[in-house]
C-alpha cells in the first residue's frame, strides 16, 4: 500500500464525494479575499483532488511583471520550485498560448505551438511537475497550478482531469475576484495619499507663515550676539526665547511629516477639539488672505473618541478647504462647533459641525458630492478640483463607524455634520 503523504487526504472517489468537494470548495473560496491565503487553499484542494504529493500555485504579480509562487503543497514544492518565474518562462508562455475549451481542457495545438508545448513540458519535467492547470480570466493567465504525478495512476485519469479543470475554474473566479479586491484596496490607498498630498500644500503654506516669526527672532539673536556677548541677562533671556522658537519649529515639522507619511490606520483615544484646533490653525493664513472669518465654539466637556488622528485631520482639512473655496469670492464666515450628542438608547457621540456662508450646493449636485471625481471646480475661478476630497472624507468616516450629513441652501451656505461614536465614559 502506498503511504499517504502528510497534508494529502484521500482523494474523493464517489460522485457524491466529488459534488461535496466542489460545493465546499466554491463556498469556501467565495469567502476568502486574501490572494495568498486563497492560493494556499486552492493548491491544497487541487493536490487533494488530483492525488498529488506536491504542487505549487504561481500567481501573476503585475507590479513586478512575473509569476510568484503563492501556494505550495509538500516539501518538494517549497525547496525544488523557483519562488519567481518570468512572464516569458516556457510554462506560462505555453499555457497562455494554448487554445482551450470553455471548461479549460486543452484543444489540439496548431503545429506552430508544438515547439512551445515541448519547451513547456521540458520545463515542467525539471520542476517535477506532471500536470499543469491554467487559471485564465478575461483572456489573461492570472495564475497557474503545477501538480506532481498522481498517487494512483491506475485510476481513470480522464475523469480526474475534467474534475480538476472544474475545480481550477472555480479557483480562477475566486482568484480573479481577490485580485480585483486587492486592486481596489490599492487604488483607495493611492486616492487617500493623493488627497493627503493636496492638503499638504495648504499645510505647507501655513507652515511657511508660522516659522517666519520664530526665524526672525533667531536671526535677530544671531545678529546681536557678537556685540551683546558680555551681557549675561541678554544671553540668558534670548537663549530661552530662541530655544522655545526652535522647539516650535520642530513641532511644526513633526506635524507636517506625520501628515505626509501614510501609515496604516492607528486608533488612539483622542480629543476631537484638539484636532479641530490644529486643522484650523493651518488654514488661518489662507482664510485671512480671502477675507474669511473663522469662529469656533468647542464644547469643553467633550467625550474622547477612538480615531486615527491623521485620517480625521484629513477629514476636517477637506471640509474646511471646501468651505474656504465656497467663500473665496465674497469672503464670509466659517463656523466650527463641537458638541456631545446622546442618541435614543443613550449612546454618546461627538458631533462636529462645519458651517459656511458660501455659495451653497445646488439640489441636483447634492446627491453627487460624495461620488469619486465629482467636482464643480473646473469651470470656476477656484483651484482645479479632483473631486476626491469628499469621497475620502466619507470613506474615512465610515471606517470610523461614524456618520456624515450635509445641508445646503444656494446663496446662503452649507453645513456638514460629522458624528463620531464616543468612548463610553
Ligand atoms: N462647503 C461647500 N460649499 C459648496 N459646495 C461644496 C462644499 N463642499 C463641497 N462642495 C461641492 O462638492 C464638490 C465635491 O467636493 P470634493 O471635496 O469632493 O471635491 P473638490 O473640492 O471639487 O476637489 P478637491 O477636493 O480635489 O479640491 C465640490 O466641487 C463642490 O461643488
Ligand atoms: Mg474638496
Sequence-ordered SSE layout with sheet pairings:
Layout: H1 15-31, H2 35-49, E1 55-61, E2 66-73, H3 75-80, E3 84-86, H4 90-97, H5 114-126, E4 131-137, E5 140-147, H6 157-228, H7 232-260, E6 268-270, H8 272-289, E7 292-298, E8 305-307, H9 309-326, E9 332-342, E10 348-356, H10 363-366, H11 389-399, E11 403-409, E12 413-421
Parallel strand pairs: 7-9
Antiparallel strand pairs: 1-2, 1-5, 2-3, 4-5, 6-8, 9-10, 10-12, 11-12
Helix pairs in contact: 1-6, 2-6, 4-5, 6-7, 6-8, 8-9, 9-11
The chain binds adenosine-5'-triphosphate and magnesium ion.
Walk me through what this model shows.
The protein is of the alpha+beta class and 425 residues long. The protein has 2 domains: 15-185, GAF domain (Beta-Lactamase, 2-Layer Sandwich), CATH 3.30.450.40; 269-425, 2-Layer Sandwich (Heat Shock Protein 90), CATH 3.30.565. The chain is built from 11 helices and 12 strands. It has helices at residues 15-31, 35-49, 75-80, 90-97, 114-126, 157-228, 232-260, 272-289, 309-326, 363-366, 389-399; strands spanning 55-61, 66-73, 84-86, 131-137, 140-147, 268-270, 292-298, 305-307, 332-342, 348-356, 403-409, 413-421. A hairpin with a 4-residue loop joins strand 1 (55-61) and strand 2. The chain is elongated. Mean pLDDT is 84; it is low at 1-8. Magnesium ion binds at residues 318, 321-322, 385, 389.
